[in-house]
Amino acid sequence: MSSPWRDFITAVKSLLCPSRVLFILVIFVLFAIQVARSDVSTNNETRIISSKNSSTETVLYYTLRNHTGEQTIDGYYGDLRDDPHTGLCEVKISPTGYESLTSRLPFYISDTDKELETIKEFPERKFWQAFEQAAEESAANKVVLFVHGYNINFVKGCSRSAVFQQTLDEHSRLLLFSWPSDGTLVSYTRDEADIEWSQHSLETVIRKLVAIYGAERLNIVAHSLGARGVVRVLQMMAREFDDRQINELVLLAPDIDADVFRTVFPDLKKITSRISLYSSENDQPLRLSGEVHGYPRLGEAGENIVVLKGMDTIDVSISGGREVTGHLYHLYNDNVRSDIGRLLSDGETASMRPNMKKLKKDGLPYWMLLPASGE
Questions:
Q1: Closest to 333 measured CA to CA, from 341, 114, 31, 358
Q2: Which segment of 219-233, 312-326, 342-356 scores lowest on mean pLDDT?
Q3: How much is the pLDDT for 242?
Q4: Is 48 part of a structural domain of the chain?
Q5: Quick one: DSSP state of residue 192?
Q6: Is residue 374, in this structure, part of any structural domain at all?
Q7: Are 180 and 80 found together in one domain?
C-alpha cells in the first residue's frame, strides 16, 4: 500500500477512536439543540407554553464583591474584595422543552434556562429587617445560609442559588453568601485566599442569623471551597460557645483536607445539632484538588470516604446524575436534590429518607443513596 493511503487510513482510524467519537457526538447534540431552540423562538405557541411553565425565584444575597461601575446585570458586581453589599436577585427559570431528548443522553445537559433578570441592592439595615420580620411572622420560618464554592461569579451564584432554593419548602428562606470568587478555572489559589479573607464577614452573618432565628431554625449549606470557610468559622465560634448554635450543617462536596476535618469535628459537633456530609467518588474537581494538595478531600468517596461517629455520611456515587464534573450533584441530580430537601425542610434523618442503603466502614454506619425507582 502506498504511503499516502496508509496516512489516510491512519488518520481515519484516529478520528474514529472512542473518545473522539464521543466528543463529536457531544458537539453534534449541542449544535442540534441550539438549532432547535432557534426554531422554537419563531414558534409563538411553543414560546407561550415555555413562558407559562417558567417561574421566578427571588434570592436574598450578602456579598463581599466590589461595584464595577457598570450598570448591567452581568457586570454590576466584580470579583474584587469590598465592604458588604446586600439585596436580592430575581432569576427566571424556564423549561427548554427538550427534556425528553436531554434525559436520554449519557451526559447531562440542563433542561431549563436560567436568567438573572433583576438585581436590587438596598441598605444592610433594611436587609436584616426583612429577616427579623420573617422570623416574627411565624415560628415555623427557617433560614438556609448557602455558601457557594470555587469558580463562581455573582450571576452564576444567584442562578445556582435559585435552583437550590427550589428544593426548600415554603417556610425556608435562602440567603446566598457571595464571597469574591473569581469565576475562572485558573484562579483556584486566589479563591483560596478570598474565602479565607471572607471568614470574618461570614462569622458576622452567622452570628446575626443565630440572634434572629435561634439555633433551631438556622441551617447552613456549604459547597466545595465554601465549606472550608464555613468549617473554619464554626471552629472559631466553638471556642466561645458550649451549646448549640446551628441546627443543620450540610457539607456538599467539601474541598477540605479530610484529616484536618477529623481534628476539628469535635468542635463542630459541639455547636451543631446535626452534620451531614455528601460525597462522591466521581467528583473530578475534588480528585484534582487532592492531587494538588497531596491529601484526600473530605468530599471524596470510595476508599477515601470519611465516616465519623455523630455525622451522617451520604455517598451519592451511584444515585444517578450525568453532570460531567461530578461536583454539582446538589443542582443537577433530582434524586440528591430531593434527599437534601427532605433533610432541610422536614428534618428527616438518613434512616427515614427513601432510597437509602445502610453500609459500614470500620464498624461505623454510613449511607449509600440509591437511584430512585424509574431511573
A1: 341
A2: 312-326
A3: 84
A4: no
A5: H
A6: no
A7: yes
355-368 residue pLDDT tens: 999 999 999 999 99
Q: How far apart are CA 228 and CA 175, in angstroms?
A: 18
**CATH number, position 107:** 3.40.50.1820
Paired sense of beta strands 356-361 and 311-315, if any? unpaired
Write out pLDDT tens, residues 180-200: 999 888 899 999 999 999 999
Distance CA 203, CA 245 (A): 12
Are the C-beta atoms of 192 and 110 separated by less than 8 Å? no
Element containing residue 45 per DSSP (H, E) = helix 44-52
- 268 and 327 share one domain: yes
| pLDDT confidence of residue 372 | 83
Residues 194 and 236 in one domain: yes
200 and 84 within one domain: yes
pTM confidence score:
0.85
The DSSP-derived string for 243-280 is S--EEEEEEES--SBHHHHHHHHHHHHHHEEEEEEEEB
Q: Could you tell me the residue range of the domain that residue 9 belongs to?
A: 1-42
Check if the beta carbon of residue 271 is closer than 8 Å to that of residue 244.
Answer: yes
Cα torsion 93, 99, 102, 108: sign: positive
Express each pLDDT in 70-80 by its tens digit: 999 999 999 99
H-only helix segments in 41-197: 44-52, 99-102, 124-137, 154-165, 188-197
Within 138-283, residue ranges assigned H as helices are 154-165, 188-197, 199-213, 225-238, 258-271
* Domain count of the fold of the chain: 2
Tell me whether residue 361 is in a domain: yes
Helix (H) or strand (E) run with residue 136 in it: helix 124-137
Angle, CA 155 vertex, CA 25 and CA 284 arms, to 5°: 45
- Which of 314, 373, 300 is CA-nearest to residue 343? 314
- Position of cell 427557617? 142
302 secondary structure, DSSP code: G
- Which grid coordinates are listed for 343? 433533610
Q: Look at residue 183 and give its three-state secondary structure.
A: coil
